[in-house]
Design goal:
Length: about 190
């Protein structure tokens, strides 16, 4: 299951569980059909994007990649790994203001990262598709019975979906069309 499917499934659980119709002040739980319909449409759109533009790797393949701790992140977006190479996000363009958000996210939320280079060239930093190990749902009391392992969301896709960065066509980015579709969807 791709990270998007996991995120969508969790969102569905949260929306269905948390949708209330409390307009009469009773606190009674009910379903907010509009929210559920919006979620269903979002899930459909994500499935269509995944079908038309498949992600680089699935969760099973991602779990086999070597994990690295992030040592530092420069103002230019160069991610230096402990005992690993210097990387830069492939296929995304980020403003300097939002680069600070990405740095903070990597230090606070990303337990470890894995990557695949977008090119075989011997350049540094290496343009790469980067995933981060997310343990948060495993540790959340509401989900620990349902989530038994880490998820590996795409950092490239997360920064696009958050609006922090935009999709960028580069010589090595094989997923530009996917990134553009995700960018359009997140607007």
């Amino acid at each position: 299951m791709t990270h998007i499917k996991i995120i969508i499934s969790v969102c569905l659980l949260l929306f269905v569980w948390g949708c209330t119709n409390d307009s009469n002040g009773t606190g009674a739980r009910g379903t907010n059909q509009k929210a559920v319909n919006t979620l269903k449409q979002n899930m459909k759109t994500h499935r269509e994007i995944n079908k038309r533009y498949p992600p680089p790797l699935g969760q099973a393949e991602l779990s086999k990649l070597k994990l690295y701790s992030v040592k530092s992140v420069s103002k230019q977006g160069v991610i230096t790994l402990e005992n690993g190479p210097d990387l830069i996000l492939e296929g995304v363009k980020c403003s300097s203001a939002n680069q600070g958000r990405i740095t903070q996210f990597l230090y606070d939320e990303a337990d470890k990262v894995s990557f695949i280079p977008s090119t075989n060239s011997k350049i540094s930093p290496i343009p790469a598709y980067i995933w981060y190990e997310d343990l948060s749902l495993m540790q959340d009391p509401d989900f620990k019975d349902f989530v038994t392992g880490p998820s590996y969301p795409s950092l490239n896709e997360s920064v696009i979906g958050s609006g922090w960065c935009t999709a960028e066509r580069t010589a090595h980015n094989k997923y530009y069309e996917r990134y553009r579709a995700l960018e359009e969807f997140s607007k």
